[in-house]
Each structure stands twice: as C-alpha cells, then as structure tokens.
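Help needed: design a sequence for this.
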C-alpha cells in the first residue's frame, strides 16, 4: 500500500502540471522509433553523433563484457581497476593532452566527486545559475560556501571570486544550447572546473570540447559517455596529482562499483570515431542540421535559443500547459520531443528542447518544423 504522504505529494505534482510518466521508446537507430503505439521520429536523445547504435561501438561493448565480465565486481579502490579502465583513461588523456584522467560510472557522479573532493570548508564555489542539477548537488555535498551568479555573467564571476575560489560552469548548457564563456571564466581568477557533458565530441579540434576550442585549460573538465559517445559513464580530465586526490577522496568514485567493462569498451570504440576524420564529418553534418532547424523555426516566427551550430535547440513556450500541448500534438504528428518543465528549468520558461543527431536528414528537420508550425497554430 502506498502511504498517504506519498499519495499527497504525487497529487501536488499532478496539480502543478509537473507529473512525468516517461514512455517506452523502441528504436533501432536512435532517430526513428515507436512511442505510445506510434511510429515517430525522435528529437530528444543526446546521442548526437548516432554512436549509440553504431555496430562498432556495440560490438566493442560485447567484446569487453565477454573478456572482463558483466560488471567490474567492486569499487575500483577495493578490487582494483580492469585493464580496460586503464586503456580508456590513457586514450582519453592522449586525446585531450592532459596528465590524468579518471573514469567514473556517470557524469552525475563525476560532478559530485569533483565538487565533493576539491573545494574544502572555508573555500568558495562560484557557480553559474543555470548549471546542471549534478553540479548543484555537488555544491550541496561540498562544505565550501556556494555563490550562484547570473548565467553567463563573467563580471559577476570576477566580483565573486576570492583567492582560492573554484569557478564552475558548463561547456554547452544542456537546456539552453549556448556555450559557457569559458575564456571569460578562465580570466576571472580562481580554479576553473568545466562540465563538458554536452560539448565533448561535438565542438573543438578533434571533438575535444569548448575549452579546447577556446584554448582554455581548466583545472578539471568533466565529459560523459552518455551523450555524444552514445554509451554510458563519464570522465574527469585533469593533471596527475589532482587525479590522485580524486581517487583518494572523491566519494562517488570510492563508494560505488567501477564502470562496467562493456561501457568502457564502448567508450574506447566511440572515442576512436570521435577523434577521427569521420567524427569531423559527423560534427559538420550535425552543425548544418542545427543551423537548418534554427532557420526553419525562425521562419515560423519563433526564437530558438542557443548557439547557431549547437545540436540542442530549445523553443521556450512559457507555462507547463502550453509546452505539454505542443509536445503531445507533435507526438500525434509523429515526432517525439519532450516538454521540459520545472525543476529542470525555471517556472515560466517551459520549453520543447529539440536535440539533433548526425543521423537525422535535412528532410527530418524540415518535416519537424512543418509539424511544429501546425501544432502551435491549433487553438487551445
Ligand atoms: C551538464 C550535464 N552534466 C552532467 C550530466 C550527467 O551526466 P550522466 O548522464 O553521464 O550522469 C548531464 C546529463 O545528464 C548534463 O546535462
């Protein structure tokens, strides 16, 4: 029996129009699938390069599982790392040109490890107001003082920084599709930490991310395998000494089972594509699709958010009801793109967040624009 207090809380979530009931999504290629009994084109996955269903990546996952087992058996601090963990960390360090990489089971845990371990009591963390929930939770875990500043406001960061402060922001903002001002942050003083969850694999030379694009070397950057790499897991790229400190004090690394071998094997295969000429072609296709979608949306009189070449394309619609209505009309028309509501975004800024894959075609984008135009034209 569900307790009364749970039912009351669920009721409040329903009353505020914030209840979520994610559907089953069947898909073979990540861009076409079946949702709630309909054949649809998918526009909300973070599988930007289409690597999630790439046979080279899935075969590497299978091979690593066969060789090393389904799981890693324990925390890496208890049972040691597997050769595939070490191979992946070396390959990532080589790609990014850094002295130390620590692979962890998820991007969420990477931010908690980083913020829980590096800033201490008496330090200050300066955090952009639109930072992801995992950064907010990492700040909560830390004993440092947290100062939140307006989104993208470098002057506010500069004013908030004290000797020894940590500054944290994102390479590409997950719900807004705009790059963080990493160069401005780097010049503000303090130790810079950048979450590149949505920008590694997508921007910069060989897909190394926004810091590489801007020539900025933060103290640490976080990347995830759950988005452009099409798999699961994450990494923290830093120097050898900071990696050592994270291994010894990063609680979400110490007190959790190591990344499964299959995920590490998949990430190695995905990295090979990301850093290759093929990866460059995929990034070019993705950027062209992003420009095309934004242009189409402007043709409807809408103002899509984000940077022109970014594969995250938000259309802010206002309240929950309007965003939900647009999303369900799109589904009826054969397009799956979720309405994003609080607490993921601020009240009054509910949106449809379209995400693109290099596997989409120009015709998919045009059809989406056409369907959205009709969905927004309908009364009610
Ligand atoms: C900016 C940002 N950081 C971290 C994460 C967490 O990454 P992961 O899905 O690997 O836990 C996400 C996405 O979920 C994200 O958008």
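Sure. Designed sequence:
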């Amino acid at each position: 029996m569900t307790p009364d207090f749970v039912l009351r809380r669920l009721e409040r979530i329903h009353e505020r129009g914030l209840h979520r009931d994610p559907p089953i999504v069947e898909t073979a290629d990540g861009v076409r699938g079946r949702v709630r009994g309909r054949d649809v084109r998918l526009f909300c996955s973070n599988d930007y390069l289409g690597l999630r269903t790439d046979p080279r990546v899935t075969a590497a996952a299978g091979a690593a599982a066969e060789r090393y087992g389904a799981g890693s058996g324990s925390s890496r601090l208890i049972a040691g790392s597997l050769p595939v963990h070490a191979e992946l960390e070396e390959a990532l360090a080589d790609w990014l040109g850094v002295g130390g990489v620590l692979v962890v089971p998820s991007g969420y845990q990477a931010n908690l490890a980083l913020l829980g371990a590096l800033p201490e009591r008496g330090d200050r963390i300066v955090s952009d107001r639109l930072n992801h929930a995992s950064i907010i939770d990492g700040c909560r875990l830390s004993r440092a003082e947290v100062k939140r500043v307006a989104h993208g406001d470098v002057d506010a960061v500069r004013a908030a920084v004290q000797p020894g402060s940590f500054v944290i922001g994102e390479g590409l903002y997950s719900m807004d599709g705009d790059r963080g001002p990493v160069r401005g942050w780097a010049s503000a003083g303090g130790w810079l930490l950048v979450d590149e969850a949505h920008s590694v694999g997508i921007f910069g030379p060989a897909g190394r991310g926004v810091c590489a694009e801007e020539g900025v070397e933060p103290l640490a950057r976080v990347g995830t395998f759950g988005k452009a790499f099409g798999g699961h897991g994450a990494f923290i790229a830093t120097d050898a000494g900071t990696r050592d400190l994270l291994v010894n004090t990063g609680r979400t690394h110490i007190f959790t089972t190591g990344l499964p071998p299959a995920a590490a094997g998949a990430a190695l295969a995905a990295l090979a594509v990301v850093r290759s000429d093929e990866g460059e072609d995929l990034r070019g296709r993705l950027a062209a699709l992003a420009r095309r979608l934004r242009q189409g949306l402007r043709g409807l009189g809408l103002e899509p958010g984000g940077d022109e070449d970014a594969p995250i394309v938000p259309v802010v619609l206002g309240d929950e009801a309007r965003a939900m209505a647009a999303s369900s009309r799109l589904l009826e028309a054969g397009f799956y793109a979720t309405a994003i509501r609080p607490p993921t975004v601020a009240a009054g800024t509910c949106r449809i967040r379209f995400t693109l894959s290099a596997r989409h075609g120009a015709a998919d984008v045009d059809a989406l624009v056409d369907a959205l135009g009709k969905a927004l034209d309908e009364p009610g």
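The longest strand covers residues 312-318.
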